[in-house]
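Summary: Need help interpreting a holo structure output

Steps to reproduce:
1. Submit the protein chain below together with the SMILES for flavin-adenine dinucleotide.
2. Request a joint structure prediction with the ligand placed.
3. Inspect the structure token block that comes back.

Expected: a single structure record containing both the chain and the bound molecule.
Actual: see attached output.

Input attached:
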Amino acid sequence: MPEMHFVVRWSDGNEQRCYSPSLVVREHLEVGKSYALSSFVERARTLLHVASDRVRAKFGTYCSSAMDQLAEIEAESKRHDAGSTVTVVRFEMPRPRRSVAVIGGGQAGLAMSHCLKERGVDHVVFEKNRVGHEWRERRWDSFCLVTPNWQCTLPGYPYSGPEPFGFMKKSDIVRYLEDYAASFAPPMFEGVSVTALRKRSDGAFELETTLGTCVADHVVVAVGGYQVPSIPRIAERIPADLVQIHSSEFRNAASLPPGGVLVVGTGQSGCQIAEDLHLTGRRVHLCVGSAPRTARRYRGKDVVEWLDAMGYYRMPVHEHPLQERVRGKANHYVTGRDGGRDIDLRKFAKEGMHLYGRLLCANDGVLEFNADLKQNLDNADAVSESIKRTVDKYIEGQGIDAPTEPSYVPVWQPSEGAGTLDLAKAGVTSVIWSTGYRADYRWIETPVFDGKGYPCHTRGITAVEGLHFIGLPWQYTWGSGRFSGVAEDARFLADRIYARIGKTHQLPETTLNELALGS
Ligand SMILES: Cc1cc2nc3c(=O)[nH]c(=O)nc-3n(C[C@H](O)[C@H](O)[C@H](O)COP(=O)(O)OP(=O)(O)OC[C@H]3O[C@@H](n4cnc5c(N)ncnc54)[C@H](O)[C@@H]3O)c2cc1C
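--- attached output ---
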């Protein structure tokens, strides 16, 4: 719950630096804007009362500094002509110099903050939205984790709910993150975006934020591996009367117009959204890509438990057979819905879902597909079966007494040929592009990226001293970009940063301000 300052210029050219115990200033004043004197005073009155109320709501006592500030503004306003204006010059954050700045307050940024705080390292977290934003705003209503709850092992806050082998629903995930943040009160500015990051000649980093400039000796970028929704340009060739959305915008079947739905892509999102629509009785057309699948359970356990026992989740990226190429691989599709089960697209087809190969082109509302549906389904099954064979070997090698299971037998086969889809004739009224995300690091003005714009790093450490990343898929292990592995990465980076800067003692009053004042 951070405080801030705002600098205003009165009609005589004098600038005044004003205090607010909350970021609420930004809802009432705009940098660069001039306000009629009376309007400015009214706004200042409102925002400082709101800020003070927030302090009272949290700590039981009004903020006397906010009221003192208001009295100063009111007194100053009396010295100026009633027809004059007041200009908001800039916003300033308190203590704009920090040892570490963490950019992003999702699970990775929070994990990082927790580990830095544990080590007594002075830092700040900037979060563009709110804690839990990605899960709250960019997942569909019936979303569940695909990974079991026991894999949620954020530092200092492992899942402790009643269903370790269950899969948290969207609202539970948001609450888990909110409760996590509340458990250790990270020094976080919510609603503050970092718009530029550059290295200064003295070695420190300069962060331009929507709350002013901040300087930090170390930076940890925690902005997620799934940043900007990616939609292929073939979307421009879909008739304009169809509704088109990205999977991150899908909420539920009822929010789509009546009629058939085309889902493009069979990564985890595409498969789960197709199932969600299918279960509501929608006519679903699904373009099947090359993503692999895995069985949910095998020989008496969740496959994740077997893989965990086999040490798969501890394998560092450089020991993986694909090495760093594994970072670009699609996730295996499976679901945590209703306690967890397989996703078998053949079963959906048997029940009436229309499956196609990869989308090739669109002409006058008629779609053409690659003739790769059979191959894509076969490959997904083959991967699933090969995971089972690996589990078999492990069970055998360890002499574990586990029930046996027959191999998977395909329940449906596609007909030969590629097929076409006339959208109008099939009654398709909406398209959901489940075609993934891309990164956008253009705001980072340091040369740490490869030809594809991916940050070059080893365990999150870049060649630019002091610049780190966390939360990237397979950053170090399978779980780096998930709930399960981010703790290990956060501890590793926090240890490294701590070793470089040591413990930074904060001024007691600053600590008090950050922890005790309202937002
Ligand atoms: C559809 C889907 C399903 C998933 N399912 C699972 C699952 O079942 N289990 C699992 O463990 N993982 C899952 N993941 C992977 C992973 O857990 C999530 O992607 C998770 O959100 C990653 O957390 P993060 O903190 O790294 O990034 P995010 O949650 O993306 O957080 C990044 C934060 O940074 C903020 N930000 C971005 N840019 C800036 C900026 N310039 N300045 C300030 N703030 C900024 C954003 O507002 C955001 O809050 C899933 C991912 C997706 C996309």
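--- end attachment ---

Reviewer comment: The longest strand covers residues 212-221. The CA atoms of residues 157 and 179 lie 9 Å apart.
Status: needs-info
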